[in-house]
Amino acid sequence: MVYNPFYLSELVQLFHEDNRVTSRGDLMRRMIKRRFLNDGSKFNLSMSLEDIEYDIHKQLKIIAFSLQLMKKNTISNLDYQRMLDFQFRQILNYNGVWSKDSERMWSFVHNNFREYLVAELLSDLTLDDTINVITYKHDRTK
C-alpha cells in the first residue's frame, strides 16, 4: 500500500491526524469521506452534504457496481443520465471521487475507489445474494 503514491499522501495526512497507521479498508473509507467533505465545502449548497452522505455513498456503490458489470472504467454522459435521476447527479458533482473529463465521460478519479465501493456493496449482500450476482443462473459453477 505504501508503494502506491495514490495512498502515500493520504497515509501521511491520516498519520498526522491519528498518529497511527490505518487498515486499507479504513483508509479507503476515510479517503472517500475526506474528499466528499473537502469537495462539498467548495460549493454553496442549500443542504448539508453530511445529511445526505449515506445516500451519496449508496449511489456511488451502485455506479461502481454497474461499471464493474459492464467491464468499463468510464461511462458516457448520456448513460450516466439514464442511470441516476437529476437530483443525485447534481449532488454527485460535489463528492471528489466521481468526475467528468473533457470528453464528457464519467469515471472514478482512481480505480481503487471503484473497486473498493464494489467490494463494499458485495459485502453488504447475503451469501445467497452474492452467489446470484456473481454466477450464471443456469450454471452456478460459472
How would you characterize the overall build of this protein?
- The protein is mostly helical.
- It has one domain (5-134).
- It contains 7 helices and 3 strands; from the N terminus they run αααβααββαα.
- It has helices at 5-18, 24-40, 53-70, 77-83, 86-92, 111-123, 127-134; strands at residues 74-76, 98-100, 105-108.
- Strands 1-3-2 form a 3-stranded antiparallel beta sheet.
- The chain is globular, with a radius of gyration of 17 Å.
Question: What is this structure, in a nutshell?
Answer:
With 142 residues, this protein is mainly α. The protein has seven helices and three strands, in the order H-H-H-E-H-H-E-E-H-H.
- CA-to-CA gap between the ends? 31 Å
What is the domain total for the residues? 1
Strand arrangement within the widest β-sheet reads 1-3-2
The structure class reads mainly alpha
Set out the fold topology.
Layout: H1 5-18, H2 24-40, H3 53-70, E1 74-76, H4 77-83, H5 86-92, E2 98-100, E3 105-108, H6 111-123, H7 127-134
Helix pairs in contact: 3-6
Please give a handful of descriptors for the protein shown.
about 140 residues, mainly alpha, three-stranded antiparallel beta sheet, 7 helices, 3 strands, globular
